[in-house]
UniProtKB/TrEMBL annotation:
Keywords: FAD, Flavoprotein, Oxidoreductase. The keyword Flavoprotein applies. It comes from Streptomyces coacervatus. The keyword Oxidoreductase applies. Residues 4-290 form the FAD/NAD(P)-binding domain. Signal peptide: none annotated. This is FAD-dependent oxidoreductase. Belongs to the NADH dehydrogenase family. Its cofactor is FAD.
Length: 396
């Protein structure tokens, strides 16, 4: 019987991990199944571009995994039972249960509403393809002079406001920041950011926490009313509640608590990678939800899974966060390096060079996922526990 590896989620972490596992483990004794809610690989880092009307190409996962041996199941995960080692799914084929020997949980995250009244009913977001498409339709119908309020001064809020302002100069863009815009950046990078906002004509309300969203306005903590035809909620990401409900040990955030090898601390057959993993980086702090962290955590998880299955020493791969790379539309960006304590270094890269670099990073991340067979070795590693291998070892 083959060792069944089930990967939940085919985003930056899951899709890369599945391809990597398939490239390095022999199909003679492993079966790798990927479960994803949608049939395509969605480049989440470009969803604000999709929302503002830019055309993005989505590559089908069936096409991505063709020739790798990875089995694709397009279905929504509804539950995980780590005691029985099963996953409940629902899809076009109806409900089903998948059994696993090793599980890699990489379901990512979605928008965090923080319980703010009206957000679920009236606000839009760019955290998933369906919500970005809903926003795209709304923005396409918004005529000149329409007001778009972006709530949140984090990376996604900044990227969304600047992208929208650049692509639709006919709209009036407003950003509500709980603190100061770019407070965490180095002084020079902050100046660069503020100049970009001025150039793009974005109005910023600082020290303005939004406490309610209504159909045509948002209400701040001090009762100020900000008129908005469209409110885009960019106040952080939250993980899906599936992990917490399953009995896996989770952090307060709902992320799965993992050890240095991305293995669940409560269930050793389960690994987590990407936004849903509560992974401690080399600086002793939790890795931020980001594409870079999805890369580090999935590399570590796959290295550990392969080593444990093939009976070799588990390697440790890098978990060091280097910095933030923020697009400011298509022609400007900021690359801010951080130190070991995640404090911004004085050096930053800005302008067209940073924008070109960011564009290269986005293309590289997408390319590495949609080419899982690149560098596929002719011989892949056999499991240490495979029946025929046990005989070989006994004879040795
Ligand atoms: C607009 C935007 C811009 C961003 N820009 C940057 C950036 O510049 N740099 C950066 O580092 N990060 C950026 N991020 C964050 C980055 O996209 C995430 O941190 C990254 O996608 C996490 O990867 P992941 O694989 O954990 O999750 P995801 O990429 O979200 O993948 C999760 C996968 O799981 C699937 N899934 C979810 N729930 C279920 C379910 N119940 N059943 C089955 N399948 C399911 C989804 O369909 C998806 O394919 C941005 C995010 C957004 C929204």
């Amino acid at each position: 019987m083959k060792h069944r590896i089930v990967v939940l989620g085919a985003g930056y972490a899951g899709a890369f991990a599945a391809g990597n596992l398939a490239r390095r483990l022999s199909p003679a004794d492993t079966e790798i199944t990927v479960v994803n809610a949608v049939p395509d690989f969605v480049e989440r880092m470009r969803l604000h571009q999709l929302a503002i009307g830019q055309d993005l190409a989505f590559r089908g996962l069936a096409d991505v995994f063709a020739g790798t041996g990875v089995l694709l199941r397009v279905a929504r995960v509804t539950g995980v039972d780590p005691e029985r080692r099963t996953v409940a799914v629902t899809g076009e084929d109806g409900d089903g249960v998948l059994a696993y020997d090793t599980l890699l949980y990489a379901l990512g995250s979605s928008v965090a509403h923080h319980g703010v009244p009206g957000v679920a009913e009236y606000a839009f977001d760019v955290t998933g393809r369906s919500s970005a498409l809903r926003l795209r339709e709304r923005l396409a119908g918004l005529s000149e002079g329409g007001t778009v309020l972006v709530v949140g001064e984090g990376l996604t809020g900044i990227e969304t406001a600047t992208e929208f302002a650049e692509s639709r100069p006919d709209l009036s863009l407003v950003l509500a920041a709980r603190g100061e815009l770019g407070a965490w950046l180095s002084p020079k990078a902050r100046r660069h950011l503020r100049q970009a906002f001025d150039r793009l004509g974005i109005t910023v309300h600082e020290h303005t926490g939004i406490e309610a969203v209504e159909p045509t306005r948002a209400i701040a903590a001090d009762s100020t009313s900000i008129p908005a035809d469209v409110t885009v909620w960019s106040a952080g990401f939250a993980v899906h509640p599936i992990a917490a409900a399953s009995g896996l040990e989770v952090a307060e955030t709902g992320q799965i608590v993992v050890d240095r090898t991305m293995r669940s601390v409560s269930h050793p057959d389960v690994y987590a990678a990407g936004d849903c993993a509560y992974a401690i980086g080399e600086n002793g702090r939790p890795l931020p939800m980001s594409c870079a962290s999805a890369g580090y955590t999935n590399m570590q998880a796959t290295a550990a899974i392969i080593a444990r299955l093939t009976g070799s020493e588990v390697p440790t791969t890098g978990l060091k966060y280097h910095g933030n790379h923020i697009s400011l539309g298509r022609r400007d960006a900021i690359f801010q390096m951080v130190d070991g304590d995640v404090r911004s270094k004085s050096w930053y890269l800005g302008g067209r060079t940073a924008a070109r670099l960011k564009s290269g990073v986005l293309k590289g991340a997408g390319w590495s996922i949609v080419h899982p067979t690149f560098g596929m070795p002719k011989r892949r590693r056999r499991l240490a526990t495979a029946p025929d291998r046990a005989g070989v070892r006994a004879a040795a």
